[in-house]
Design brief:
Elements: E1 16-22, E2 27-32, E3 38-43, E4 48-52, E5 57-61, E6 68-73, E7 79-84, E8 88-93, E9 99-104, E10 112-115, E11 121-126, E12 129-134, E13 139-142, E14 152-155, E15 161-166, E16 169-174, E17 180-185, E18 190-195, E19 201-206, E20 211-215, E21 221-224, E22 234-236, E23 242-245, E24 251-255, E25 267-269, E26 276-281, E27 287-292, E28 296-301, E29 310-313, E30 318-323, E31 329-334, E32 338-343
Antiparallel strand pairs: 1-32, 2-3, 3-4, 4-5, 6-7, 7-8, 8-9, 10-11, 11-12, 12-13, 14-15, 15-16, 16-17, 18-19, 19-20, 20-21, 22-23, 23-24, 24-25, 26-27, 27-28, 28-29, 30-31, 31-32
């Protein structure tokens, strides 16, 4: 089981910094464009900053009054969608910074926005309301109201299926049908959902300090418990075999291959002194990045025992970590508004 006590401080080689920006406000979302040319940072106060991959500042979008809550890039990297506490979702032109479309989503807060990975579909989650739009801002369809506030939306990689989570329910939908394809009942508060890259598994992090794991086709489920805190951090490796989880200062990694993780001992990567706040596996490589509430970022290869490969201290709690699409750069953001981008060592 994950350990509640933090391990001692470790000393590792420094991550190589490429550039850094100081935005002066808590960064709530950080996302690379699919083509790797840009990175967007959304701040809790509302504005969204766009940077080129080399750190050149491009635009500051006004975002949402009272605060931005979510952002998502279109598959072609031309559009950025955002949702916020003003009750709207907006679609922005990434090249010019112009607001192209304003979408009324039916509730006071828009907490979820998610562009599909290939088609021109945008999902918005506002309270219990789930809606679909296209990139031109046209309403496509409504879905049945959820039993409670939608806490996560995730598209199945490369497919037209997507999953949503709310208290007591994980539902799987097809984008071109109005009702859900399959629902998985679970009596608990679900905080985050993550598809495995191969689309065979769905994992959720939960308020009750557990991780739940479903086989999508059969509906069989497993649960991993014993964490000291609720789980908001999940990351699948590129091969869909390993699931990394937070909920403690230790990166806990479950082997989901073969008969699955039931009854097995997880891999545990120790080095952070504070609880984890961000996790990200590379898209195709073997490295995993972790960030904690103490401001430390580490990069690990969990197949190699021992200490992290490299690390950095950003001076404030890490809120987001994202690998660039080609895995050659790693972006991290903090609650004080620092965005720092690192270059991967050729030796790793």
């Amino acid at each position: 089981m994950p350990r509640a006590l933090a391990p001692p401080k470790v000393s590792v080689p420094e991550l190589r910094q490429a550039w850094e920006a100081h935005l002066g406000d808590h960064v709530v979302r950080l996302e690379w464009s699919p083509n790797g040319a840009m990175v967007a940072a959304a701040m809790i106060g509302g504005p969204i900053s766009l940077f080129a991959a080399d750190g050149q500042f491009l635009h500051e979008l006004p975002g949402h009054s009272f605060g931005t809550l979510a952002i998502s890039w279109s598959a072609d990297s031309r559009l950025l969608a955002s949702g916020g506490q003003d009750g709207y979702a907006r679609i922005w032109d990434a090249a010019t910074g112009a607001a192209l479309h304003e979408l009324m989503c039916g509730a006071q807060w828009v907490e979820q926005v998610a562009f599909s990975p290939h088609n021109d579909y945008l999902l918005t989650g506002a309270g219990r309301l789930l809606k679909m739009w296209n990139g031109a801002g046209q309403h496509v369809r409504d879905f049945p109201d959820h039993p409670s506030t939608i806490t996560g939306i995730a598209w199945q990689p490369g497919q037209l299926f997507f999953a949503t989570v709310a208290y007591g329910q994980l539902a799987n939908y097809h984008a071109e049908k109005a009702d859900f394809a399959k629902a998985f009942a679970w009596k608990g508060s679900i905080l985050v959902v993550a598809w495995s890259p191969d689309g065979n598994y769905l994992a959720t992090g939960n308020q009750d300090a557990s991780v739940h794991f479903w086989y999508r086709k059969s509906g069989k489920d497993l649960e991993m418990t014993g964490y000291p805190a609720k789980i908001r951090e999940l990351a699948w490796d590129a091969d869909s075999r390993f699931l990394a989880t937070g909920g403690s200062p230790v990166v806990t990694i479950w082997d989901c291959g073969g008969k699955g993780p039931a009854g097995t001992r997880p891999i545990q990567l120790e080095g952070h002194e504070r609880f984890l706040s961000a996790l990200a596996y590379q898209h195709r490589g073997r490295l995993i990045a972790s960030g904690c509430q103490g401001g430390t970022v580490f990069v690990w290869n969990h197949r190699l025992p021992g200490r992290p490969l490299r690390g950095a201290q950003l001076g404030a709690a890490i809120t987001q970590i994202r690998w660039a699409p080609d895995d050659r750069m790693l972006a991290a953001a903090t609650e004080t508004g620092v965005v720092r981008v690192f270059e991967k060592s050729e030796k790793e």
